[in-house]
Amino acid sequence: MPTTHHTKMLILGSGPAGLSAAIYAARAGMQPIVVQGLQPGGQLTITTDVENYPGFAEVIQGPWLMEQMTAQATHVGTSMIWDTIVDVDLSQRPFRLTGDGGDVYLAETLVIATGAQAKWLGVPGEQELGGKGVSACATCDGFFYRGKKVVVIGGGNTAVEEALYLTNHSDDVTLIHRRDSLRAEKILQDRLHANPKIKILWNKKVERFVAGEGTAGLVGVALIDTVTGEASHEPTDGGFVAIGHSPSTILFEGKLPLDEDGYLLVTPGTSLTAIPGVFAAGDVTDKVYRQAVTAAGMGCMAALDAERFLAEAEYRAMAEA
After folding, report:
1. Residues marked as catalytic
2. Once rounded to an integer, what is the mean pLDDT over residues 195-219?
3. Share of the chain residues as helix, strand and coil, in percent rounded to the nearest 5
């Protein structure tokens, strides 16, 4: 039987942004509820080595970090619920949200920290070969390609990080980029160029993923040179698409302002959206930095902004009484 949950703060998403918001809100006595969504722990749960999160001199593991954040949030008074929100009514407070099992959430404030999801190329063979050689997560699936040839498609931080990670499993990693220069940070580019296990194919666009005859698995990628138009074939056992992410904002289309790329718009320097009492934090609103530490900082901002909002609302109510 569906349950109705009441809370001063409902948080959608359980990555660094959502859990940081939960920690601050719980410590302020707001008894927040975190709806964990389709990917509990966020993108860090599919990240292995984390070497840039403050406070850790040695490399740590992404899933471990999220486990610690979750434990901390729970310890200070956060309720963690395994659910996925399918409907949102922001027309009045308390805001009303509905889970896919029918549970109803009534929230005085809402923090949206739903993050972002991997983008796909949209070329033939990509979906058909998903899980059969094509992946968007090297840290999830790289183990299956130990000693095999793999390719990574992309030219930003994500692609370079995926290529570097895959060298833990493969001695034959090829980065395919449609331009003649990378967009990744210089330190990552330096590591890439210094790694003898990685080669780069410049000015190449993937036209399709190719399955082998008589098998269901990937055997190569069909390429087109973006300068000459020449077609070529690159044999591979695994293809990793690493071209960025799309914000998880489909629930809020037509309900909150989004930018041209679908990211939630907030007042600069804050977590405030266009609706009072609704806040956004992390990759769902940040397409510039997209780091775990900035997401966590924005989660803190959202909790503090929400706490301030409720305090002001309570003061006004008392003054009008």
Report:
1. 137, 140-141
2. 93
3. 30, 30, 40
